[in-house]
UniProtKB/TrEMBL annotation:
Organism of this sequence: Dyella tabacisoli
Stored SMART domains: Iso_dh
Identification of the protein by name: Isocitrate dehydrogenase
Record keywords: Oxidoreductase
Any one Pfam family match given in the protein's UniProt record, by short name: Iso_dh
InterPro entries: IsoCit/isopropylmalate_DH_CS, IsoPropMal-DH-like_dom
Membrane in keyword set: no
Known EC number: 1.1.1.41
Domain of life: Bacteria
Amino acid sequence: MSKTIAVIPGDGIGPEIMKATLRVLDAIDCGLSYDVVEAGMIALDKQGDLLPKATLDAIAKHKVALKGPLTTPIGGGFTSINVTLRRHFDLYANVRPAISFPGTKARYENIDIITVRENTEGAYLAEGQTLSDDGETATSIIRNTRRGSTRIVRYAFEMAVKKGRKKITAVHKANIMKTSSGLFLNVAREVAKEYPQIEFNEMIVDNTCMQLVMRPEQFDVIVTTNLFGDIISDLCAGLVGGLGLAPGDNIGADAAIFEAVHGSAPDIAGKGIANPCALLLAAADMLDHLGMVEKGSKIRQAIRDTMEHDRAHVTPDLGGKGSTESFGEAIAKRVLAA
Ligand code: NAI
Ligand code: MG
C-alpha cells in the first residue's frame, strides 16, 4: 500500500519522539510516505504563523496526520492550536485507548478500555462562557445536539463492531442535567437498538469514576459527552500508568489527526529521555484507521515485549535507564523480528 500522511513533529520533545516513532513505522514497512509540515512555536519562529496554511492544506490533502505535541504560547491572545485544528476539521470523535503494559507502576494489569469522547460541543463551547459586567456571576452553557450525540454514539458502535469489542457503556448525568445529558442518553439508547450484537449499558458519571477505580475490568468501550470524556479518559490513563502510554485519536468525517495525549514536556525537551510510546501507540491506531490492523497490533505487541524484556532500554519515566532513541530502536528491532 502506498499512502502519504502529514507529519507534524511539533514542539519540545515532539521532534525526538516523532523520530523514534517514524523509525518504527519504517521498520514495519507499512508503505507510508511522510509530508513533513510545521505547526506550533517552531512554525511561529520560522514562518511567523502558529498554524500555517500549508499545514492545514497538507492535512486536508492527505486526510491523515500524525502530530507531535504543540506549545500554544501563553498570553498574546493565541487560541490553542489543538482546539483550532479540531474545529477546523470538525474532528468530532476523540478516541482514547487505555491499555495495560507490563513493567509500569499501574494498579491494574489487564485493562483495555477505549473512551470515545464527543469533541465539539457539550460544555466546551467557546461562546458559552460569560462573566457578568460586575464580575460576580459566571455562566457557562452546555449544549448537546441530537446530531452531535448521534454521530458520536454511532461512531462508538461502529468502532466496537470493527474492533470486535463486546460492550458499550454510555456515561451521563441525566438524572440532574435532564436536558443536555438527557438528550445524549436518549440518543444512545436509540442508536444502541440498531446494534443488538453489542451489549449496551448506561452509567451515571460519578458512579463511573468509582467503578473505574474499583472494578475497571467491567468496562470495554465508554461513550460520553465532551467534559465527562475529558475527565474519564485521563482517569483511565492513570489506571494504566499515566500519560507516557496514552494515545489520542481525533477523528472526523474528512480527516483524522493522531497524537499523544501529553504535551511538549519543556522540562525534559532536548534531553533525549522522553518516552516515545504514546505517539507510537497513536501511530498504531493510525495504521488501524488506514486498514493496516495487523501492523497496528504488531507495534503494540512490540512495545509490550520491549517493556517486559528489554528493561535496560526503557525510558526513565517507566523506571528504565534508556533513551528515546534506544527505546525506539529496541521496539523497531522487535517489529523487524516479528
Ligand atoms: P506535559 O504533558 O507536556 O508534561 C507534564 C509532565 O509529564 C512533565 O513533567 C513532562 O516531563 C512529563 N511528560 C510528558 N510527556 C512525557 C513523555 N513522553 N515522556 C516522559 N515524560 C513526559 O504537560 P504541560 O507541562 O502541562 O504542558 C506543556 C506544554 O504542552 C504546554 O505548552 C501545553 O499547552 C502543551 N500541550 C500540548 C498538547 C498537545 O499538543 N496535544 C497537550 C497538552 C499540553
Ligand atoms: Mg484533557
